[in-house]
Amino acid sequence: MTLWRPTIGGRTLALATTLYLLLACNATFWAHAHAAFGGTTPAFVSFALGIGLLLLAVLVFASVDWILKSVATLLVLISGISSYFNDTFGTVIDRAMIESAVTTTGPEAGHLITPSFVTHVLLFAVLPALAILLVRLKPERFLHRALRNVAVILPALLLTAGLAAANFASIAYVVRQHKDVMKLLNPTAPISAAVRYGLSTVADSNLVVAPFGTDARAGDRLKTADKPVVVVVVAGETARAMNFSLNGYGRDTNPELEALGVVNFTNTTSCGTATAVSLPCMFSGFRREDYSERKARSRQNLTDVLTHAGVSVSWWDNNTGSKGIANLIDYARLNDRQNSPLCKDGECLDGIFLDGLDRKLATIKTDTVIVLHQLGSHGPGYYQRYPDAFRRFTPDCRTDELMNCPKEEIVNAYDNTILYTDHVLASVAKLLAKHEGQVSGAMIYMSDHGESLGENGVYLHGAPYAIAPREQTHVPFIAWFSPSYQKVMGLDQACLLPYANAEMSHDNLFHTVLGMMNVQTDVYNRDLDAFAPCMAKSVSQ
Ligand SMILES: [Zn+2]
How far is the CA of 448 from the centre of ligand 1 (A)? Predict the structure, then answer.
C-alpha cells in the first residue's frame, strides 16, 4: 500500500502555514493585541494584516522544496508548543523563561508534561507538522518560481509598509507601550527569546570572575564572640507574601513562626519573577536597577565575600542548583537521595534539610553561614511540596493540571505549601536554639519571587517585571535570632518592630547578611542592612 501524498504548490503551502500559525497558535496574542488597540480599530486590522503578510513573505521567500518544508515544520512545532504555555498559563516565553527551561531539573520539568500538554502538542504541533511533511511540492523551474515568488513577496511587503504608514502612530504606540503583547506572538517570540539566550550564553562563556570584597574581615564582635556565630540563610521558592498569616492573610498559615516570635517585614519586593533572575541577584550585591546576569557572573558574590572574612560558607540545595552562586564554596545537592522517605522521583520535601542541619550544628567550630535553597512552593505540583500531616486546607488540588481544579483547591494546595514552609523555617530556628550551647545562631529567610494562582487568568510566575502582578513580586522576609546571638551581636530585637512595614527588597539581603555576621568590608552598605539600626556598632566601625 502506498501512502497518498497530495501535491501542492510551494506558495500554497506557505499560505496554508501562515494561516495555521496565525489562527491556531496565537489565540492569546490576538486577545491581548485586540485589547491593546482598544478593539477592532483600523489600526488593529492593519497590524494584523501586516503580521500575516510579513509571515507569508518570509515563508514564500523560503519556498524551495525541502527548505520550505523544514522551515514550516519547525515553525509549526515551536508555535504549537509555545501556544500551550501562552493559552494555558498566560505565560510569556521570553529570554528568562528559556533560561529557566534550560536550567531546570528533570523532575521539575516533568510536572509540566501533563495529559493536557501532550494532547495540545499532538494536536497543535505534531499532527500539522506531519501534514506538512506528507505533502509533495509541485516542481517548478527556477526562473519561473523566482518570478512568481517575487510577485507575491513584493506586493506583500509594499502593502505591509502602506498599512503601517497609514496607522503608524497607533501601531508604534502599542508596540512600544505593550511590549508584553509582542512577546506572545508565535513563532517570533520564542525564536527571538531562544536566539537572545543563545547569544548571551556564548558571550558569557569566556567571562572571568573578578574578586570582590577581598578586604572583608571579621569585626570585633565576631572576633570576640564566645561561641561560633552561625547564620542560616533560607532562600525560599515561589512563596508569595500575601499568603503568610504573618502578613495578615486570613488563614493561619504561620502558626509555628508566630509562636516563635520572629521578626517579619511585610513590605518586601523581589528582584525578578523567576529563580534564574532573583537568586543570583539576591546574592550579587547589585541593586535591582543595576543588576544583570552578566554583571553578576563577572564578579564574586556574597558567599565569596563572607569567605574572604574567614567565615565558613556552605550551600545546601533542594532546588535546581545555585545558578553559579556557589561555584567557589562548599556545595551539597540534597535532592538526589534515593533512600530518604522525604524524597520521590528525584524531588525531596524541604524537611530534608533538618537532620543534616542538626548534625552539622552539633560539630561546628567556626563562624559559619549555611544557605538552604528550598523547593518551597514550586508549582504547578503544589500538592507534592508537603507531607500528609500538612494537608490542612482541603480539598487540595492534587494534579499538575491546575486548570482541572477549582480556584479554591489550587489555593488550598498552595496554602499547605506555605504551612509546611512555616514548619521548616520554625524547625531551623528550633535547631539553632537546641544547639545554643555550641553556637550563637540566627536565621534569615526571603523567597525568590511570588506566584500567580489564577488572578486575571495568570498562573505560575515569570511575568516580565514591568507588568508583573504584585502576587509575583511581593515576597516574605522573616528573621529569627537566638538570645545568645542577640547578646553577642548587640542586637535589640524590639527595636526592629517599628521597621516592620518599611520598604525592603532583595537589595537588602547582601548587606544584611554581612551585617548579621559582623563582616566589615568596603562593599558593605550600612543603609541597606535591614538590621543595622538596631545592631550595636563594632568598636572599630
Ligand atoms: Zn523560583
Answer: 5
